[in-house]
Each structure stands twice: as C-alpha cells, then as structure tokens.
Amino acid sequence: MKTHSIDVHALKRAPARAGDDDVCLRVEELSLHYLRSQNVALENVSLEIPRRRVTAFIGPSGCGKSSLLRCFNRMNDLIEGSVISGRVSLEGEDIYDRGVDVAALRRRVGMVFQSPNPFPKSIYENVAFGLRIQGVNKKRVLDEEIEKALRNAALWDEVKDRLDGSALTLSGGQQQRLVIARAIAVQPEVLLLDEPASALDPISTLRIEELIYELKTRYTIVIVTHNMQQAARVSDMTAFMNLGRLVEYGETDTLFTNPREPQTEDYITGRYG
Amino acid sequence: MQGDQHSQYRQHISGQFNAELDAMKNHLLEMGGLVEQQLSRAITSILQRDSGEAEAVIAADREINTMELQIDEECLRILARRQPAASDLRLVLAVAKSTTDLERIGDEASKVARQAIHLSELPPSASGVNEIRQLGSHVGAMLRDTLDSFARLDVGRAIDVVLDDNRVDEEYDAAMASLETYMRQDPAHIRSVLFEMWALRGLERIGDHATNIAEHVVYLVEGVDVRHMRMDELRALKASVSVRPGL
Predict the structure, then answer these.
(1) Alpha helices (runs of H) in chain B, residue ranges in sequence order
(2) Which SS3 state, helix, strand or coil, does residue A236 take?
(3) Which residue from A6, A228, A258 is facing B223, i.e. has the nearest CB?
(4) Residue A246's beta-bridge partner residues?
(5) Whose C-alpha in A136, A258, B19, B151 is 20 to 30 A from the C-alpha of A172?
(6) Cβ–Cβ of B224/A8 closer than 8 Å?
(7) A8, A232, A265 ranked by CB distance to B87: nearest
(8) Crossing angle of the two packed helices B190-222 and B155-185, in degrees rounded to 10
C-alpha cells in the first residue's frame, strides 16, 4: 500500500534544491533596474532551471518575467541604462563575467520572440544564417543541417519543396516554427521562448506546444507566457512572478493544483487584480 | 468569513464564475440536507416499523438521483468552460466525488426503509431496536458533521469524522454479535433479526460514505489526499492544521 507523508508543510514546500548535475541555469539574488524608470524590474530573484526540462514564467504584465528571460542571454545589455546585480550562471559559468563573449553566449542560448521575425530571405537562407556565421559553408553540410533543423522544428514536410521560396510567404505558425528551426540550427543548449504562440491561432499554438514537448529532450527550454493554460500544458516547472519578485517556483503539477502562496492562488484562479 | 463564498480567497474577476462555483457548492449542500432528512426518516421508519414513512423515503430517492445528475453536469460544465485551477479545481473535484457518495447514502437509506416495510409485516419484537437506534444516531451525526465541515471548510472537523469511522465499525460488529445472540435465544424472530441486520449493514455503509466525503473536504482545503492514511498520520495532520493560523 502507498504510504503517505504526514507533514503537510513538507508536501507544500518547493521541491528540494536540484543537484548541481541537473541545473542548467542558476540565478542568484538577481536584481535589475533601468535608470530611466524608478521601478525595479527584478528584485532579488533566485532560482535554478533544470536541464532538458521546460520551465515556464507566468505573471501579470510588467511582473518582470520577460526581463528575467532576457537576462539569460544578456539581451538587457542592449538597453541603455540597465543596471544588473547578482549572478546568472550557465552550466556553472557566470555569464556576466568580464571575459564572456556575448555573441558566443547567444549562440548557446537561443531566443524566439512573440511575433515571428524571419529574415526577408529564402526559407533555406533563414536556417543557414547562423551556420554561415559560424563558418559552415559547405553545401552538403548546410543541406544536412538545414533539413535536420527543419525536421526538428516540425516544418520540413511543409516546406521541403520550396526551400528557395521567401520565408515571408509562410503562415504565422510556419514562420514561428522556421524561427525555431533557425534558433536550433546552431545547436544551442538553451532555448528562450518569449510568448512564442501569442500571435498564433489555436491549431498553430498546439503545433508549437507539441514541438516544445519534443524539443525538451535535447534542449533546456524557458518559456514566458501570458496563457496560464499553456504553461500548465507544456512546462515541467513553473515560476510565478509579480512586481519583479519571484513569488513561487515549483513543479507545474503542484503549482496548478495546490500552490502554497495565496498570491499564486489568486492569480491562477483569476482572482488577481 | 467564508459564508456563501467557497473559500477564504478573494472573489474572482469574473463574477459569473464566482456565482457558478457558489451555486454548485450550494446545490451539493442542498442535496446533503435532503439525504440527511432521508436518513433520519428511514431510521424512524424502521424503529417504528412504519411502512408508510418507509414508502415515502423510497419514493423521495428519485429526487436525490436527479440532483446527482444535475450537480455532476454543473461540475462538467465548469471544467469545460472555465478550466478551473488550484482551489477551484479541487472544489469541483470534491463536489463531483461527493455527489456519488451522497447518492449512495440515499440508496442505503432506501435499503433501510425497505427493511422497515418487511418488518411492518412481522409480529412485533424488540430485538435490534437499541442497536439500530444507536448506530443510526451515530452515522446521522457523522453525516451532519461531514456536511458542516464541507460548508465551513473545517479540516479539523472533517478529520474527526474520518477518525470516527473506526468507532462505527466497532459498534456495527458489536451490534451484529448481539443480534446473533437474539437469534439463538429466540428462533421465532429470526426473520425480524435478519431484516434488522440488513438495516445495520446499510447504516454502517452510510458511515463509510460520510467518511469519504470528509476525505474530499480535507483534499479540498489542504490539497492532501488522506484516503488510506493511517490513524496516527491523520492525527498528526490534524495537529498540524490546528496550529496554523486562519483555519
């Protein structure tokens, strides 16, 4: 017979700190603010993102979830007057260290945005883009890598006969999968998805979610979404953020059935506001 | 604080959703009230061997069955249209499961009433009257407590009901033993005693269903599944929730 733990508080506690072997990204006391704004974008956020899992960030607009995501590939560096403190390490290496090559970092940590942004080039050249930058120029290697990336992004069957056609003729859902193919062609370790399906219809959304499910066997995926049901469907871990703080972080199964923080409860049951 | 609201949390942004959850819970409590009434009338009918009262209990069971279907449909609609999460999801699950147990309690009450009809046709005997009265009032109190704990989200009280079920089982065993003695002593009334044994069995089952509902209440409030938990674990759980503020 199944035995039960009797300590209710233990049941509700966040999962134990993952062993170092399982942690892909570690965030320690991370704070971020923009000089032009008085508000703090992130305040003292600490969490560990497990390798080859899907971690979702949810929370109301302006809660800091996208800002946190952007810290993982130093996109915030591009915003003038952003001040960051604390540590973010990728596989144990501090990504804000002086010696870090940001371009190399962004190759390891790919990103996909809300609205699909294919380059105004052919489907083939979109996926080849990152590879060419890396110095891959042999046609045979490119062909192989591009097919692999398009297959992994579940787009190959739809575009294999028109690889030279413009990427801009694809539907929104196809464009988004193309952008994902472009991101994974350079073999990143982490894939950051910022509202990847919010501009898509429900069927394209499900395709993207199915794709996320398949990609997590190879990549660590972090997704920001406004759609709580989507977070519940695709993620293994969920972080709820509010006003720049991490309110609750835990297994998605627990967070959506029995959250421990009243603020999380209010938000996911629609009592927020 | 809780009153008509199903939980200690704030209102939903959607007032309609709030209203649907409240209505669903109120319908369950209404069904519970009806089942309570059925049980008490069934016990009266058997103690007094009143076939008229018993017939009324059996006829009213149909109403309970209809309520079960209606409430289950409400739960299904909320699941499909609102995709409830967290405490809302646990509420819908607890209500859907509790309707099944309430409906079964209704069935058992009818079964007790059917024994009253059989007994009304037999010569009077006072064999199992005390046993039925005692077990009947015990499971009646359990049902009332379990419904109160649901209405007030009172975990401590719900756990008490679960713990109490052992005493019901003991009382049932003792009652069966004394009825067996009656049969030996007075073989002329064996038929009466057999019907009373069926009634006792029904009452004991009602205690089990009341316990199930109490377990759903603990799950609803705490998010902890206490089915098949040991007694000492339950007591520890009760101690841990009673020290927490706000409950």
Answers:
(1) 15-47, 51-82, 86-120, 129-152, 155-185, 190-222, 231-242
(2) coil
(3) A258
(4) A241
(5) A136
(6) yes
(7) A265
(8) 170
The count of CB pairs under 8 A between chains A and B is 67
Given CB atoms, is A269 within the 8 Å cutoff of chain B? yes
Partners of A248 in the beta sheet? A240
Largest CA distance in chain B: 68
CA A87 to CA A23: how far, in whole Å? 14
Phi and psi torsions of B48, nearest 5°: -100, 0
Q: In this structure, what are the phi and psi dihedrals at residue A234, rounded to the nearest 5 degrees?
A: -100, -20
Residue A10 near chain B (CB below 8 Å) = no
ipTM computed for the complex: 0.76
Are residues A6 and B240, on separate chains, in Cβ contact within 8 Å?
yes
What tens digit of pLDDT does each residue of A122-166 get?
A: 999 999 999 999 899 999 999 999 999 999 999 999 999 999 999
B243 touches chain A (CB under 8 A): no
Which residues 6+ apart lie within 8 Å of A43 measured at CB? A31, A64, A243, A244, A245
Which strand (E) or helix (H) includes residue A257? Answer: helix A252-257
User: Topology of domain B15-242, per CATH?
Assistant: Methane Monooxygenase Hydroxylase; Chain G, domain 1 (1.20.58)
**E strands in A3-92:** 23-34, 40-50, 54-58, 82-90
Q: Are the beta carbons of A4 and B87 separated by less than 8 Å?
A: no
Residue A50 has pLDDT above 90, yes or no: yes
DSSP of B61-77, one letter per residue? HHHHHHHHHHHHHHHHH
Question: Range with the lowest mean pLDDT among A14-23, A39-48, A52-61, A237-246?
Answer: A14-23
Mean pLDDT of A237-251: 96
Q: What residue ranges do the domains of chain B occupy?
A: 15-242
Residue A66 — very low, low, confident or very high, per pLDDT cuts 50/70/90? very high
CB-CB under 8 Å, B83 with A262: no
Quote the tokens at residue B147.
């419904």
CB contacts of A8 in chain B (<8 Å) are 222, 224, 237, 240-241
B90 touches chain A (CB under 8 A): yes
User: Domains in chain A, please, with CATH?
Assistant: 22-118+189-268 (3.40.50.300)
Residues of B in contact with A229 (CB under 8 A): 83
Q: Which two tokens stand for residue A114?
A: 């809300």
- Residues of A whose CB is below 8 A from B83: 229
The pLDDT tens digits for B37-48 are 999 999 999 999
DSSP per residue, A159-225: HTT-TTSBGGGS-HHHHHHHHHHHHHHT--SEEEEESTTTTS-HHHHHHHHHHHHHHTTTSEEEEE-
